[in-house]
Specification:
The protein is of the alpha/beta class. The protein is built from 5 helices and 7 strands; from the N terminus they run αββαββαββααβ.
Length: 190
């Protein structure tokens, strides 16, 4: 009986830290997200663990598909979802997008989302940008902390982060929230 109670207590203590994943999002409030019907997901900045990178791509594919978007080829999709894993030496916007000429990633939000090209993301951070492929401008950004490690829990961590990010992804212009609602949900506008 003591063992059972000790196990339950341990799980209750571990529960909040496991589920309290920090995820912040930001989006362009003037962009009409209802025009997105198709998407492609790619790893823009690998973090050195191919299994973890595959898990992240699968999580975002699953969540966007459940939103009603269809997966398509990168060359013909409406939205390009780019995953960046911050690792030692590649932690700033400038470093993450060094090999992405023409993609507009500037001026995209606050705190964890950072306006500055010199903002450093600590290793383990996953940055998710969704680009409108017609304009190559970022219209949505999500940032999740403590994700890009080599762990057996990566699949679940990526799925939770994807669920939170996609949940805050607008479906169309008329679905915008007020500033107060956005502050409570971790969503900001750029």
């Amino acid at each position: 009986m003591r063992l059972l109670l000790a196990t339950i207590a341990l799980l209750m203590l571990a529960g909040p830290s496991v589920s309290a994943q920090e995820v912040e999002t930001d989006h362009n409030p003037t962009f009409d997200f209802s025009q997105f019907r198709t998407f492609a997901v790619k790893v823009g900045t690998p973090w050195g663990d191919p299994q973890s990178e595959t898990a992240a791509k699968a999580a975002f594919t699953k969540r966007l598909t459940s939103k009603g978007w269809r997966q398509a080829d990168e060359n013909s999709c409406d939205a390009l979802v780019v995953l960046h894993g911050a690792s030692p030496g590649k932690q700033t916007f400038r470093a993450l997008y060094a090999d992405w000429p023409g993609y507009g990633w500037h001026n995209v939000g606050a705190p964890a989302l950072a306006d500055s090209t010199d903002y450093d993301y600590k290793p383990g951070t996953l940055l998710v940008d969704i680009f409108d492929t017609k304009t190559k401008r970022v219209v949505f950004r999500g940032v999740a902390q403590d994700l890009t490690g080599k762990s057996a829990n990566d699949v679940q961590k990526f799925d939770r982060a994807a669920k939170k990010m996609v949940h805050s992804l607008p479906s169309g212009k008329s679905e915008g929230k007020s500033g107060a609602e956005n502050q409570e949900s971790g969503t900001r506008h750029f």
